[in-house]
Write a structure and sequence with these properties.
This protein is α/β, with parallel strands linked by helices. The chain has helices spanning 3-25, 42-68, 74-103, 140-143, 152-160, 181-192, 206-210, 235-238, 243-253, 271-287, 307-311, 314-318, 329-349, 376-393, and strands at 110-111, 115-116, 131-138, 168-173, 199-203, 261-263, 291-296, 325-327, 353-356. Helix 1 (3-25) runs antiparallel to helix 2 (42-68), helix 5 runs parallel beside helix 14 and helix 6 (181-192) runs parallel beside helix 10. A hairpin with a 3-residue loop joins strand 1 (110-111) and strand 2 (115-116). The strands form three sheets. Strands 4-3-5-7-9 form a five-stranded parallel beta sheet, sandwiched between helices. A two-stranded antiparallel sheet has the order 1-2. The protein has a two-stranded parallel sheet with strand order 6-8. It has two domains: 3-107, no CATH class; 127-244 and 258-393, SGNH hydrolase (Rossmann fold, 3-Layer(aba) Sandwich), CATH 3.40.50.1110.
Length: 397
């Protein structure tokens, strides 16, 4: 066997070793990137990489052997590869334009100040003097509904309809996913306060808490009291990728993931800003003689926790995750407890009715499908808890 032959075999061997090293990497993906909830079609990309990569290597080896044996000319292979590259260059602008149109969400969903557009607040027809209007402020745990399209705000509306003799109690859901106490303050002052509701019910915690993880993918820079570091739902719009960048991001996310550092902390710089915004809402409402009810936010975080319960914590595993760090369960538990304690403190100091949902809703997958969002039956539990305390409080008059 001559030296050229030996060199070719050695070269082919190292090519196969390199190919094996690359291929094995696709079986160690970043869990964040292969979750279709946050990175659409990532699992499909990973599957294609696992299927197509060995086929491509097999074709490459076949061509190398074919050239060596004279079955193919190297110039023919180069010409064919150049033709495919040229065709890809021609097709790419059209494919990229199609990708961009389907990648971005409808711009009508977004708001220049609130990130997501708030729900319209229009009081139902009828004499205002014959109504007692309650507005519920919060995030997705206020906004979201059960599988029949009925949320706890709707149920509360039914339960309290006849709570005041001579008046109709109407409950309006003004919660919006991703909203923080700052969003609710802005939304209340601009959209709700001018219509003079009789009562507001305020429940915020999880979204304010998440913004303390200023190393996360949704954050850009260190924590700011005005939440200006956190881009939330518009993050993907601002970091719009081309088709090539998207594919490259997927490949990187699917290949030899390096485990992130687990951050365990009891330092939450957003607590003072959160408390200040809550107190401001209370000040504005009480200035207008609007009753204020404060609610703690129920959550599933606990110790010990089962594997199934831990796997359901997608906000912890995605919204407090960055390229190199992620929060521990203990951090999330301390954080939610600290934010709920602020609600308890403000309610006590300002003599407000406190509905302590955190102590009412059991920490079980029977009641939660993730760390804070409710199973269908939980909506009625929440509504009955609020209705019972409101009827007993004497606030409805």
């Amino acid at each position: 066997m001559n030296r050229r032959r030996i060199a070719e075999l050695i070269g082919l061997f190292f090519l196969l070793v390199l190919a094996a090293y690359v291929y094995i990497g696709f079986f160690h993906p970043d869990p964040y990137y292969v979750d279709d909830i946050y990175v659409p079609r990532a699992k499909l990309v990973l599957l294609l990489l696992r299927v197509l990569f060995p086929i491509i290597i097999a074709i490459l080896v076949f061509l190398i052997i074919g050239v060596r044996r004279g079955k193919f000319k190297l110039s023919q292979i180069i010409l064919a590869a150049s033709s495919m590259l040229f065709a890809a260059i021609i097709i790419y602008p059209f494919a990229n334009n199609f990708f961009q149109k389907h990648y971005l969400q409808n711009v009508a969903l977004f708001h220049p100040y609130l990130q997501l557009a708030p729900h319209d607040f229009t009081i139902r027809s009828g004499e205002r003097k014959d109504k007692y209007v309650i507005v519920c402020l919060g995030g997705s745990t206020t906004e979201f509904k059960d599988h029949q399209g009925i949320g706890w705000c709707d149920m509360l509306d039914s339960l309290l309809r006849d709570a005041i003799p001579g008046k109709t109690v109407e409950v309006y859901d003004q919660g919006r996913q991703w909203y923080t106490m700052q969003h609710s303050l802005f939304n209340y002052e601009v959209n709700i306060r001018p219509k003079h509701p009789d009562m507001i019910i305020v429940m915020q915690a999880i979204n304010d808490l998440a913004q303390n993880a200023d190393f996360a993918y949704f954050s850009h820079g260190s924590f700011r009291d005005d939440y200006g570091h956190f881009y939330g739902p518009i993050n993907r719009v601002l970091e719009r990728e081309s088709l090539f960048d998207y594919c490259w991001t997927m490949v990187k996310g699917c290949w030899y993931h390096k485990p992130r550092t687990i951050v365990d902390t009891d330092h939450f710089p957003g607590l003072p800003a959160y408390e200040n915004k809550l107190r401001t809402i209370v000040d504005l409402a009480q200035h207008d003689s609007t009753a204020v009810v404060v609610m703690t936010e129920a959550f599933l975080f606990k110790k010990p926790i089962t594997d199934q319960e831990n796997d359901s914590l997608y906000m912890l595993h995605h919204e407090t995750v960055g390229p190199e760090k992620e929060w521990s369960l203990e951090t999330a538990l301390r954080g939610m407890s600290a934010y709920d304690d602020v609600c308890r403190k403000v309610a006590a100091e300002r003599h407000l009715l406190l509905v302590d949902l955190e102590k009412t809703v059991p920490k079980s997958l029977r009641f939660f499908y993730d760390e804070v969002h409710y199973q269908d039956t939980t909506h009625m539990l929440v509504a009955k808890t609020i209705a019972g305390q409101l009827r007993a409080s004497g606030l409805l008059h």
